[in-house]
Amino acid sequence: MKVCLYFESEKLISGSGIGRAMRHQMEALKSAGVEFTTDPKDDFDILHINTVGVTSAALISKAHREGKHVIYHAHSTEEDFRNSFVLSNQIAPLFKYHITNLYSMADYILTPTPYSKKLLEGYEGIDRPITAISNGIDIHRFSPDDEKIKAFRKYFSLKPEEKIVLSVGLYFERKGILDFFEVAKKLPDYKFIWFGHTNLYGIPKNVRDAILDAPTNVVLPGYVKGAIIEGAYADADVFFFPSYEETEGIVVLEALASKCRTIVRDIGVYDPWLQDQVNCYKGTTNEDFVRLVKGCVEKILPDLTKAGFETAKERNIPEIGKQLKEIYHKVSKMPIRSE
């Protein structure tokens, strides 16, 4: 059995959550001993497609004509498309129609969480079986490392006494960046660092203006990878991720794996795997977040990082590889779907 992992526009998505998912899938299949290719021109038995671009439908049709099974990994929903790029809310219904058509062409659908599974099951036109499998996390990569911490602190010229509040994401309103700024304004003694970048011409004016006028205690270093960001996760006093909508949130798994105190918005995607005051802290309003950030930074609130690490450990890459391998075997026994 050989699988084709397909990610359209691989270079463009490399810094996104789907880009992380791509790397995790490759690592997971290696760990599970599943042969795979990323070139759709190669010979393979199962097409595992991850993106929703213009070539997706043609590639699925070609796979079916050749008697091959197709799995669609549904990383995107209408809900997490909204409040992102310019005109995303106006386009969202068309985007939903597009992804519904694509996903329904597959033999089987995978999606990262029970929450996104429930959303897709509610889309009229999708009648394929759906299984939730986490995008996974490389536990070892995010183990605290003194050299990475030193690299992070040197990169930002941090003083020993500085308190760090960390977040990671694109410059989307959906990601909660405006709330991140508001909380930073109310906690001027802490340094807030937001890793990630989006071309300012592609985001709405209110978000663009807020970024250009960010509070003085906010640092926006752009897209940074490797030792710097891994050191940041390990050294930050708290990871604060106020996103309004996710299909999973790989960056949350990265924070948990790094044993960083973690605060998220109380939204459906985290049910049931993240529990308030058990393995993370959840808030709803900026007043909640100010209290929680201060409580975590000043170590007033209980340390939940041990339980958070166990949550990440359950989603370690080798475990995800086993789950994907089981799905491949299951799908390989299904009848080939005709177009």
CATH topology of the largest domain: Rossmann fold
By CATH, the architecture of the largest domain is named 3-Layer(aba) Sandwich
Domain unit count:
2
What spatial form do the alpha-carbon principal axes imply? globular
Number of distinct helices: 14
CATH homologous superfamily name of the largest domain? Glycogen Phosphorylase B
Q: Could you report the average pLDDT, rounded to the nearest whole number?
A: 95
Strand content: 5-15%
Order of helices and strands: EHHEEHEHHEHEHEHEHEHEHEEHHH
- Name of the level-1 CATH class of the largest domain: Alpha Beta
Fraction of residues in helix: 40-55%
Give the end-to-end Cα distance, rounded to a whole number of Å.
23 Å
Low-confidence segments: none
* Multimeric state: single chain
Query: How would you sum up the major sheet?
Result: 6 strands, parallel
The helix-and-strand class reads alpha/beta
Strand order of the largest sheet: 2-1-3-4-5-6
Q: What's this, in brief?
A:
By secondary structure, the protein is of the alpha/beta class.
Any descriptors?
about 350 residues, alpha/beta, Rossmann fold, 2 domains, six-stranded parallel beta sheet, 14 helices, 12 strands, about 40% helix, about 15% strand, globular
